Amino acid sequence: MKIRQVVLLILIIIILIIPTLIKKQNNPKVEGIAVTPAETIPSPTLDIIVITETPIPTPTKRPSPTPTITPTPIPVGAMEDWFNKYASKESIDREKLKRIAVCESGLNPNARFLDYGGLFQFSTSSWISTRTNMNLPTDPALRFNPEEAIKTAAFKVATEGIHAWPNCNK
Fold it and tell me: Exposed, middle or buried by CB within 10 Å (0-12, 13-18, 19+), for 49?
């Protein structure tokens, strides 16, 4: 038996038997004749204590730390190579493409502002639309990949012009 069950059984026995013993002690009978004791013995009072199982507290789960996105270091000269490669592929001015990236993000591929992100600060909808036209994956997280951003911006400049970046098209 568990300790709780034993304690409960003892309490039940105490509750049922002691009052009966007290009654017999206060009212003894000798051969069927009731004898009144000379002195009345006060009845003891029973304080009933209910024992319940104490809940075992469950440990509080600690929240896992929010992972910090660590930017992948870009090899020296890689961005320059990508500006050259995609400007040439789309037959656009390399310096104009780079000027837009400098104006929009300071050449920071992890730059964010509201819904805009990456080197060229593409909005989610503009990114998806342009990448759909390119038949390439439309995942908005790719905006933060500098090569993908340069490739997409070069395509957008070649097909739509630089009006998508009105503050940087000087």
Answer: exposed
Is pTM beyond 0.70? Reply is: no
CATH number, residue 135 = 1.10.530.10
Angle, alpha carbons 61-67-69 (nearest 5°)? 175
Task: State whether 93 and 20 are in the same domain.
Answer: no
As given in the structure block, the two tokens for residue 150 are 């340069």
What pLDDT sits at residue 30? 47
Check residue 125 and give its pLDDT: 94
d(C-alpha 49, C-alpha 7), whole Å = 11
Residue 13 CA: distances (Å) to CA of 17, 41, 94, 158:
6, 23, 95, 94
* Same structural domain, 149 and 92: yes
Residue among 161, 97, 104, 108 nearest 130 (CA): 161
Q: State how many domains the chain has.
A: 2
Q: Give the tokens for residue 9.
A: 């059984």
